[in-house]
Amino acid sequence: MFFQPSPLLRSSVSPVIPPSISGGDEVIWCIETKDICTNAPPISADNLTMSSVAAAITIDETPTLSSGTSAISSGYTHSFSIGPTISGTGHTPCFSASNNSGPSHSPTQTNAHSTTYSTYLDLFEEEYLSDDTDLQEAISRSLESSTNESDSRMTLERIMEQIGSRVNSDSTVRFNIIRRNVWDGTSRAMGRSNFSPDKKVDVKFTDDYGTSEGAVDNGGPTREFFRLCLHEIKDKIGIFEGPSNAKVLTCNSKAMKDNAYFYAGQIMAMSIAHGGQSPCFLSELMYECLQKGPDNVKVKTEDITDEETRSQLQLILQAQTDSQLQDAVAQAASLISLAGHNVRITLENKQETALDLAHWYVLQRTRAPFERYVYI
């Protein structure tokens, strides 16, 4: 950096500048003068005094000298100002300097979309946030709504593309299926150590003697295979119960032992990823359970598929007197005992109790099968 005196200073004014200026340095300009000429009448060096009061300094993005000379720094920004002060009979040039040790950069513009408002709020410490709880709650709801709207913009086609992109076409898993016993061949193939649901599927149908049907799998046999598997899962292997279009999981110790819940969950996911049919037989409750988790789903007595169990809980809800309630509780004693409910049931808590028992029967009773089914 260099300093060039103003043209108005016609005699020798030699500022002594330090080699470098670092953060926090205070700079005093030493000026060797003899006779200084300004627009005012000349004054001698003996009468010259320097102002001890620093001139006001304004730091701009492009600092300038008051004489018009630009001072530009690539690393640290130093601003200079020259202002006249009155001393004796004339004007005395007053030099001051300041050192701003922060890096000087060109002005930058922040992209409005690069930082969300929620991230911006997180920068504030708690003590600076508003004490208005209603305001904070409104902001929180607004942010949640914005997030939900953003998530909902992903179309079904986009989701399917993401699922399909996981299929590894370089590796193949082969299923040799006998139509008379589809699930047996499927579970055997899935039990192999080299099986992976991400591999491309190749299906060959055979008869009871192992003779191939001869069809090359260009997609047709694979779709037929998944259609047959979904039919087996829905109605044959005993892991679902309920109406044909509203199935929920049920307990089956043999299926649990044979790992059928795990295989069924994999086949249903593979059918979607590999272009097969969608498993559209699940109940709304089951779908919500897959989406949110069993603990975050509310169950009604109508969701119970077993007629006897549903009737027992409805009797508890319909009881109007203590006598009716005690009779209903006696009929549901086995269910209450299995659920581990040890709170005395009264007219005041009968509704809460009935819903808790319904939740246990539909979701908590089948928690272990559910966790195998969703591949946990």
Automatic annotation (TrEMBL):
Pfam assignment, any one: HECT
InterPro entries: HECT_dom (IPR000569), Hect_E3_ubiquitin_ligase (IPR035983)
Organism: Cyprinus carpio carpio
Domain HECT span(s) in chain numbering: 193-373
Gene3D superfamilies named in the record: Hect, E3 ligase catalytic domains
GO molecular function: ubiquitin-protein transferase activity
Protein name: HECT domain-containing protein
PROSITE patterns to which the protein is assigned, alphabetical: HECT
Keywords, comma-separated and alphabetical: Transferase, Ubl conjugation pathway
